[in-house]
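Query structure, 327 tokens:
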């Protein structure tokens, strides 16, 4: 009887003995695993690539990684949701970072609404390079406000009809004005008078019938292809221009040679006008036969109805005869 009771209890004793020795065996087995092994032991499972997700809950990031105070806590909801970052050192409101960053596109609206560096909007319509302003083909109907430093103005191929007295007011550095191919029909007398350093005035292909008072320092005056009449040039208009070298009056409605001409003149173009006659002193002083005009070498009178052979006394002071019909 005792033998039977012992035999019935023997399996239970052996089971307890095996269970008690399990931690020691597991400890020995854990010690045999190095850091470079491709698997690990967790509980009663041998952790491998096939059952990795059965042992560890990958969604519980906080349980798996506990960095303490080394890094700020990150709370992740979904990949598309905004992420709230709270810094341990920050005491203000947490920042919210959008998962779709937005970029602000630069705009030129502020530049267009604000004045230029000169305090004027002209350099937004025209091209300003140093002391030069280029307003060609800008659809202008009048002279725009110009920077005070402007020395060279190019406003060709526009629709400018008039030059007013205030258009160049205060522009004391202007040296060249080119208004070719506009519709200018009048220029106020005070528009150019105070431009003391103006050297070149270029006005071809306009509708001028008269010339304004010209500044004394001018060297080149180009008024070709206008409607200029002899009555539109004031007597003695060129006498005071002691630096005038080139005077281009071709393709107008002149019926006489304007004069007197300054001694500095080198070129005089009067072709394609309505000149039929000239004064004997148009180029030379008939009373002073020793007077000569060696600088005036280029005189064009071709395309006029005048016969140059009828006025020989007008050329004796010239180094060359004018170009035109001689008989």
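Result returned for the query:
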């Amino acid at each position: 009887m005792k033998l039977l009771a012992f035999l019935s209890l023997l399996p239970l004793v052996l089971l307890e003995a095996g269970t008690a020795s399990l931690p020691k065996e597991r400890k020995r087995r854990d010690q045999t695993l190095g850091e470079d092994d491709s698997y690990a032991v967790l509980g009663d499972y041998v952790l491998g690539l096939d059952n990795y997700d059965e042992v560890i809950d990958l969604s519980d990031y906080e349980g798996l990684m506990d960095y303490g105070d080394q890094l700020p806590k990150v709370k992740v909801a979904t990949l598309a949701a905004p992420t709230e970052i709270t810094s341990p050192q920050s005491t203000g409101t947490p920042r919210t970072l959008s998962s779709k960053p937005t970029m602000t596109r630069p705009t030129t609206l502020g530049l267009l609404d604000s004045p230029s560096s000169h305090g004027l909007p002209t350099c937004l319509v025209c091209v300003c390079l140093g002391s030069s302003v280029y307003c060609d083909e800008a659809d202008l109907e009048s002279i725009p406000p110009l920077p005070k430093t402007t020395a060279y103005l190019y406003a060709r191929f526009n629709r400018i009809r008039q030059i007013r007295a205030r258009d160049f007011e205060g522009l004391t550095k202007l040296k060249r004005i080119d208004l070719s191919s506009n519709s200018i029909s009048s220029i106020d007398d005070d528009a150019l008078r105070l431009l003391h350093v103006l050297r070149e005035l270029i006005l071809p292909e306009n509708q001028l019938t008269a010339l304004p008072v010209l500044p004394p320092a001018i060297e080149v005056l180009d008024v070709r292809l206008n409607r200029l009449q002899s009555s539109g040039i004031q007597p003695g208009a060129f006498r005071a221009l002691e630096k005038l070298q080139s005077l281009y009056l071709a393709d107008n409605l002149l019926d006489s040679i304007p004069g007197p001409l300054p001694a500095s003149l080198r070129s005089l173009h009067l072709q394609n006008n309505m000149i039929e006659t000239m004064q004997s002193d148009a180029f030379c002083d008939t009373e002073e036969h020793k007077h000569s005009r060696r600088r005036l070498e280029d005189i064009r009178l071709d395309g006029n109805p005048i016969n140059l052979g009828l006025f020989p006394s007008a050329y004796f002071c010239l180094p060359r005869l004018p170009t035109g019909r001689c008989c």
